[in-house]
Amino acid sequence: MDTGTAIAFAMVALGSALGAMTRYAIARIVDSSTFPFATFVENIIACTLVSFIVFRFAGQMDETARCLIVVGFFGGLSTLSTFTTDCVRMLFDDAYLYFAANVSLNIGVCILGAMAGKWIADII
Asked: How far apart are CA 62 and CA 92, in angstroms?
């Protein structure tokens, strides 16, 4: 493995650790006893901020920074696997209204957040 590839892997690992720790901190703060609000918040934050960074710094971010921030940090922060597990649990618990709300809110609001991130990037 060449040095550049090794550095990229190290940046992904570091960013992932920081993103996962951030996700854990949010999960400790946000009450998810009745609905997976923590996962929802984590996904909104990740989708909005990664969109802002990708569009604001397109062509300006080197590979090391991209691996650390976009691939690593936001990959560790966003929670598609948790989201899908929550959805399956809701289906098996016959909580269809919660399932529909979870899917609609996560997908809809995250897309709106990503659009907001791009819009903010365009005006800054």
From this structure: 45
- Tell me how far apart the terminal alpha carbons of the chain are, to the nearest angstrom: 39
Q: Return the SS3 of 8.
A: helix
* pTM: predicted TM-score of the whole model, two decimal places: 0.88
Could you tell me the two tokens for 18?
A: 């920081």
Q: Which two tokens stand for residue 28?
A: 């400790």
CA angle 22, 57, 82 (to 5 degrees): 30
Task: Extract the tokens encoding 99.
Answer: 């399932």
Q: What is the pLDDT of residue 81?
A: 86
Q: How confident is the model at residue 43 (pLDDT cuts 50, 70, 90)?
A: very high
Contact of 42 with 29, CB cutoff 8 Å: no
Distance, in Å, from the CA atom of 45 to the CA atom of 112, rounded to the nearest integer, reads: 11
